[in-house]
């Protein structure tokens, strides 16, 4: 059901955010990882925990390069943006990335209230 209803030309990407330790029985972890892989999705795993099971997370991702832990966490946003940029955009004919960034914040401008002219006595 993971890919149900998606466009035929779309990529399916799953990002697993985890503490790195399932509470489930290992057999269930293995069968769930297989179902996720059978979906054909690109799978990424991210954890901020210092105490994680690399074996479990790699079981889900299927690729150690898709595992973001320790110092690699900083690379996740960069890699995700690059991956999304590779997605085709309907009607787009150029190879330009589909990722857009928000506009830079503009400095606030203030308008001073007009000062009434002073008259000398």
TrEMBL record:
Signal peptide: none annotated. PROSITE patterns: VWFA. Residues 91-121 are annotated as: Disordered. Residues 1-84 form the VWFA domain. InterPro entries: VWF_A, vWFA_dom_sf. SUPFAM superfamilies: vWA-like. This is VWFA domain-containing protein. It comes from Plectus sambesii.
């Amino acid at each position: 059901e993971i890919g149900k209803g998606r466009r035929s030309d779309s990529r399916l990407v799953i990002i697993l955010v985890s503490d790195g330790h399932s509470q489930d029985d290992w057999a269930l972890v293995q069968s769930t990882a297989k179902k996720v892989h059978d979906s054909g999705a690109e799978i990424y795993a991210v954890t901020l925990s210092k105490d994680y099971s690399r074996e479990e997370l790699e079981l889900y991702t299927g690729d150690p390069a898709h595992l973001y832990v320790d110092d690699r966490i900083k690379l996740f946003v960069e890699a995700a943006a690059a991956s999304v940029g590779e997605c085709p955009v309907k009607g787009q004919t150029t190879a330009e990335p589909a990722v857009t960034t928000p506009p830079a914040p503009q400095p606030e401008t203030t308008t001073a209230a007009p000062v009434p002219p002073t008259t000398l006595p």
